[in-house]
Specification:
The protein is mostly beta strands. The chain has one domain: Pectate Lyase C-like. The protein is built from two helices and ten strands. Strands 1, 2, 3, 4, 5, 6, 7, 8, 9 and 10 form a ten-stranded parallel sheet that branches. The longest helix is centred in the C-terminal third of the chain and has 10 residues. It is elongated and about 55 Å long.
């Protein structure tokens, strides 16, 4: 993938401070709701959400665990951050900003990105079944080899979103315009749409076109 739709990678320093295990050294910052910048977190368990939303900027996360739920607000914004092998399952990122982020081989089952802003975001090999993206804005986002079964994208806004070998079985894309997207390498079984206009202009295989038409009660004659 190249050109204007390519997600910009996170801007990370070559000399990040390392926090390993628990985050005792950063407890004050998290407790007081201060932003954190330029830290590599290794095997850290964020077992409690900060009292205020904080921004984690220019940080790397390896094998970290984030708190599920976290109440009725998103505890974090992530700017210029890279995640590898992390568990974000059930994390509430409603209305959060995720700009210039990469997630590789992470688990985000049931995570909520409702009304979030995802800009220049790359997901690779992630388990994201039952995740929620309703009313989110996705701009220059790449999903590669991810599982998004039963994920909900209802009325999300897509701009330069690219899909490669993803599992979208039962995913709800009602109200999402898929024009210009190449979906041929993805599993669209039982994908939920309001009508065929939502896939108008998308690139589909003949099998996918027939499958989606059948789900909506239409007929495709080839």
């Amino acid at each position: 993938m190249s050109g204007r739709g390519t997600p910009r990678p996170p801007e990370l320093s070559d000399a990040l401070e390392t926090a390993e295990g628990r985050i005792d050294a950063l407890e004050t910052a998290l407790r007081d709701g201060e932003d954190v910048e330029g830290v590599r977190f290794v095997s850290v368990v964020f077992d409690q959400a900060p009292p205020f939303r904080i921004t984690l900027r220019g940080c790397a996360f390896e094998r970290c665990v984030f708190p599920a739920g976290a109440g009725d607000r998103a505890p974090f914004d992530f700017i210029d951050c890279a995640f590898r092998g992390c568990d974000l399952s059930g994390l509430n990122l409603e209305r959060a900003a995720l700009h210039r982020v990469s997630l590789t081989e992470c688990r985000a089952t049931g995570a909520s990105f409702v009304e979030a802003s995802l800009r220049d975001a790359a997901f690779s090999g992630c388990q994201m079944d039952y995740s929620l993206f309703a009313l989110a804005r996705l701009e220059r986002v790449q999903m590669a080899r991810c599982s998004l079964a039963q994920a909900v994208f209802t009325d999300a806004k897509f701009q330069s979103v690219h899909w490669e070998s993803c599992r979208l079985t039962g995913a709800d894309l009602c109200g999402v315009r898929l024009k210009g997207m190449d979906l041929r390498t993805n599993d669209l079984t039982a994908m939920v749409l309001r009508d065929l206009r939502e896939v108008s202009g998308a690139v589909l295989s003949a099998e996918q076109a027939c499958l989606l038409a059948a789900l909506l009660g239409a007929q495709v004659k080839i």
